[in-house]
Each structure stands twice: as C-alpha cells, then as structure tokens.
Amino acid sequence: VENVNFECLSLHHSLEGTDKRQAYHTTSGAVQISGSSHVMFSRCDVQHAGASCMYTGQQSSNIVIENGRVADCGGDGISMDESSTHITIQDNYVNTTGFIYMMQPTGIRVQGQRNITVQHNEVLNVPYGAIMVGWQAGYEWTPPLSPGHYVFNIRYNHVHHYGLGILNDFGGVYVSALVSCWQHPLQLEAPNAAPPSCNMATRVEQNIMHDAECYNYGADGFYADEDAGGMDVVSNLIYDVHSAGIYFHCGVNLTATNNFVYNADSAGHRGALSGCNMGGFSKHLTLDASFQQNIIYVVGNTSHLSTPYSRWDNSTFNHNLYYDPSKPLVFPNNTDFQQWQAHGEDAASKVADPKFESVAKRDFRLAADSPAHNMGIHPVNIVLVGPHDNPFGHMPLASWTPLQALQKRADLPTSLNTASSSPETGRPAH
After folding, report:
1. Cα 241 to Cα 266: distance, rounded to the nearest angstrom
2. 8 Å CB contact between 241 and 220
3. Where on the phi/psi map is residue 118: left (φ > 0), alpha (ψ -120 to 50), or beta?
4. 34 Cβ contact list (under 8 Å, min separation 6)
5. Confidence category of residue 18, pLDDT binned at 50, 70, 90
C-alpha cells in the first residue's frame, strides 16, 4: 500500500488481536501498518484498544502519525518494527497505555534503521517508560556523531507521570540495545564471534521529563541501558523523578550537555546521576561519557551526585553547575568537590545556586544574575515542547486515572500502589 492519507477518523474499541507479543511488547494494534510506504494518519483518535493502539509492522517506510490522540491502550500507544525507515511521530497526545501488557509497556516505542523522529508529543500516565528506543541490534560506529548520523531523534516531547509506582527500572526516555550487546564480553553466545555494535545513534534533545515514580527502584529521567552507546543527551529539563536524572549504564560515545536536573533521586536510590555498575555483568563493561555544562540541583534526602556502586571509568566532567541548598554535596567515589577536582574532574565547574526563577513553581528560567550565563549554559526553551497543532487539546491526567484503568480490567484491591495524588498537568511556566 502506498500514498494513502487517513484524516479525522475516530477508531474506538478493539480486541487484543492474535499476534499479541514479541519479547516484551505487543505486535497487534487497533491500527496496523505493514509493507506500506507514504502513509499518513493525521488528526485521528484511537482509543480503548485491547493490545497496542497503533503498530507499524515489517518493511514500512515514510509513515507519518501526527496531530492525533492515542489513549487507553492495553499495550503500547504507538510502536513499530525494527525494519522501519523514515518514520515521523509528532504532535500527538498519548495517554494511559500498557495497563494490560505490563512487559515493559510504553507510550511510544520506536525501532528502525534510519530517520526515526519522535517530536512534539505529550506522553503521560504509563506504568513504565514513556518513550522507549531500540531493543534491537546497534549500528556501525560513525564517530564523531553528527545530525546526519543519528538514526533516532527524540526531541521537544513532554513526558510526565510515568511509572506511577507500579513497575521498576525505566526512564522517561529509555534507550537499549539487544541483550547480546552487553553479554558479549562473557562470550556467552559465540566465543569467536565479533562483538555486536552497541551504537544506538540517538539524539535526545529539548525534552521535558518529570514526575516519575517506581515501585521500589529505577524511575529515571533519561536512561541508557547496559552498554548502549552513541547517544547525545542535550538541553533536556528533568525534575521530580524517583531515581537518577541521567543514567548512563555503561557504554561509549555518550554525552550529556546543557541539561537541567532538579530533585532527581527523590527516593534516594541511585544519586542524581548514575553510571556503570560495579557488579554483575557490568563489571566486564566500560563507560566513556562526557558531562558538560549541566545544572544539577540536589534537594531532599539525597546528597549524592552518584551512588557508591557507580563507576565512571573514562568519563569526563567539566563546566557543570552543582547546588544543594541545605547540605554538602557528595561527588563520585565518595569525594567532596575539592577532592573530586583533585582527581582531574570538573576543573571549570562550580558549586553555586543557579538562581532559577522559582523552584517551588517549577519555573526553571534562569535569573539575569545566574552564574550559568558565564559558563556557557543556555536556558532550555520549553515553549517548543509538546504538541503545537493538535485538535484534541490537552488531555488531563485526571480524565482517566491508572487505578480506574486497572480496575476496569480486573478485580484489583483499591490499595494498589499508584500515584498517591492527583498531580497538576499544566506545563511549567514560560
């Protein structure tokens, strides 16, 4: 099928389908696209699906899903096959997904071979990660990375109220390679085989991620899973997440630049930043990452920038601005700032108040006298974030709560550990 546009359709209520699962996710959708090119879904409303709401299958290219609403999906909101090319998902509202298939459910799941773009979407109310990238073989290394080399571009999305206290180990934007990537040092599969590529060729830029809650560990902002590399994380605003603001779980060619992180690790799990674990499979892996010109504002119970079990290996830190208004910060390797600098890190960084306009109101504009201005740190332009041309308007979280969704499907106790309050869903102040 080629050259078909679907506009202004309402597609409600579908069964689970027959081809329900592939590994962790569903491959059935209320809308399924397969073997097609130059297909557009514009201003369509897809809701109340037994499995995923929209699924792009094998050998599809030049697919656009835009200006729509996807809600109450038993599986993923929007997902695709790894053979996909030239896919754009933009200006959509994706709300309440993954409450039937809880094997790593998500709002938007992307795979593919080239030119996969997820931009200007709002994703909320999902019991796991909001936007998930990969779970496929990586790509041949092409350093230094440039816009022409990215396979995945994840930008200008507003993701919030994810995890909901139900599942563990996820991120607002969560990127992973195949399991063979991080197992290859143990030679578990083929002792003489060349190691697979872990390069995920991803740029994550100008997203807002906030209000993440896990069951008991691992509700991160950005999360690059074990040994996945080749990613640039640039100018994201991350706040009020239970676990790390940015988690690089081993891997090489990773950069974090000009990100604003506030109240990460609010549950005291991993530190505001998290690196390569010291034990398990991770002891065979390495981490080569760069942290430059970020603002890390620590509040609450934690004083750690990094957990004691994180390794940073060949990583570099510089030109960052750190602050805790109530207690001394603990830097990696259980050091204070002077000791950390003596190790050769953060030579041009500072510990000082970044002077946000109002952290109480979650207004993260920089005051005119913020020290960030003289450190090359630029404000995150939140005006660009989220849907801009969507006829459905903002879909409030309170219109369909996770507990209602779960109790509709099964006779579950009302004490289920979901979000404990009805959170505000408005965007941060401009």
Report:
1. 6
2. yes
3. beta
4. 56, 57, 58, 59, 60
5. low
